């Protein structure tokens, strides 16, 4: 006859609940999988299945009661690790939003906006095109599988404990967030520079011939030229995103001590 003691049940619960918290926290914050259109039940089921798969290959949790103060600290640390891992990739995808918004405002399409399914705010359509393209690229290179692999390996390099991320790791995330604006401007700079020269030429033409309706002629030309420039520079845009994505994975590897 099988018998289970309270200690054995709590130990089995601890070996499952803390890895599940770290993995599910990542799926809450990771791009693509954190969209509001994806039901929370699916994220929970995927996290549950991944946890069942990785439990046999990860170290045993510390001998700490789950329902205790120390257990609460361990849970908080797992949430911080999982959310931080996904948040770094959120910043990577924000580069495309910043770049797309800068281009849209330069070409006069800032009013053409739609709701971003990830952030739930209104963003220009050009930015959405960049985000969709980068999402397809991220899935095409199996970035989601690489992230899951890195998080699984983190249970060996950063085991479950009440001490995890420190101030140094959190400061490195804050400092790296400047890449959102640096890479976003770098991404949009070719199109913005070209449109700037076009607007300067319109200003010179309006000064030379005041009778011309430059606004009525220049607005559609700026939009058409902006569309052409976006199409021409799309490969360069994805290359910039690839470099930022590589830097983001490097930061995640540093945070997880891989």
First-to-last CA distance: 44 Å
- Proportion of residues in extended strands: under 5%
Average pLDDT score: 80
Number of DSSP-assigned strands: 2
Shape summary: elongated
Jot down its keywords.
258 residues, mainly alpha, two-stranded antiparallel ribbon, 9 helices, 2 strands
Give an overview of the whole structure.
By secondary structure, the protein is mostly helical. The longest helix has about 40 residues, at about 70-105. The protein has one domain (about 5-255). A two-stranded antiparallel ribbon has the order 1-2. It is about 75% helix and about 0% strand. It has helices at about 5-30, 40-55, 70-105, 125-140, 145-155, 165-175, 180-210, 215-230, 235-255, and strands at about 115, 120-125. The model has no long low-confidence stretch (mean pLDDT about 80). Helix 1 packs across helix 2 (about 40-55). The chain contains 9 helices and 2 strands; from the N terminus they run αααββαααααα.
Summary of the model, kept short:
The protein has about 260 residues and is an all-alpha fold.
